[in-house]
Amino acid sequence: MSRDLPWRTYKQYLLDTYSKSVYRIGVDGGFSCPNREKDRSGGCVFCDATGASATYQRKGEGIWKRTSSFQQVIADRGPRKQISLERRLKSLEEQVEKGKKFLFERYEAQALSLYFQAWTSTYASVEELKELFDKGLSLYPFTEFIVSTRPDCLEDDVIELLVSYKDKVDDIWVEVGLQSGNDRTLERINRGHNISKFIESVNKLHEKGIKVSTHIITGLPSESNKEYDNTINLINDLNIEAVKIHNLDILGGTALFDEYIRGELTVASSKRAIETCIYFLRRLNPNIIIQRLLCETPPHRLAAPRKFYDKSKFIQQLQKRMDEFDMRQGDLFE
Ligand code: SF4
Q1: Strands 171-179, 242-247: parallel, antiparallel or unpaired by DSSP?
Q2: Which residues form ligand 1's pocket by a CB distance below 6 Å?
Q3: What tens digit of pLDDT does each residue of 39-76 get?
Q4: Ligand 1 centroid distance, CA of 78 (Å)
Q5: Which of 200, 251, 325, 327 is the most buried (most CB within 10 A)?
Q6: Which runs of consecutive H residues, i.e. helices, occur in 172-307?
Q7: Closest Cα partner for 302 from 246, 249, 245, 266?
Q8: pTM score > 0.90 for this model?
């Protein structure tokens, strides 16, 4: 458990493990996503095809044009436009440099991890992945190597490749997207995989000594406590090491946005999102590291909720509420 918060934070985990402040450099390897290929009808219903990125990587030109309005996103629900491997390798150098500069100057980082963050970062041939991962890991003596992907992009040869980096870093993590532990919901949000595939991937990673973090979304259509319990039990039963919790954001240009403007969907207020967060935290194994508690969509991409606490207020209110009623992560864990 973290020193002053009623949940186990990633920051504290890193401090306890490495005795220094470790920060991630999030990079975009230029990957696309199988769920956005033609036969998968435009990808997950909440995805605006922009890809997760660190704030410091959004400034300047970059090599991929970033969307700046809903209209641009609406025009593109297909796979990502591909660019040459040469350019992607070059871009990794630039991104790592930018990340180093920012994290050393702003946070006085004492160590860095490499985080292939955007899109599906194992969606390529093993040869191409090896070139990109080799390049990234050659740019600095990184502490951890973290790769974000989908459960259906973790074939045995990809996992073997990840394992081959064990002597280069202190730890390897794979972030495996889940969003919900309910097959009906996965179908509803067009995830393009089921729970069995997720279980298979997590077990394979664990067999090889790779740590797993997973992403979940609270407030998805048709989900309430019964569905949340299934998600929580799945995460606990699989001994997943870390979780990122996101409240549902409606992003411009997504399939959910279409439903939202037709009035078919509502999103949780800050207070509701906090209550749901508490529901999850109290039932998750207290050993699980909490890496995220809310979505932080840039305002120009966010359609709803528009009036939502910023990160510091959300965390402060969450802590206040949990402290008030003496609630802790895992106090209802069975
Ligand atoms: S798996 Fe990720 S990148 Fe692919 S459609 Fe879903 S959210 Fe978007």
Answers
A1: unpaired
A2: 33, 35-36, 43-44, 47, 119-120, 150, 177
A3: 667 799 999 877 666 766 765 544 444 444 444 444 35
A4: 11
A5: 251
A6: 183-188, 195-207, 225-237, 255-261, 270-283
A7: 249
A8: yes
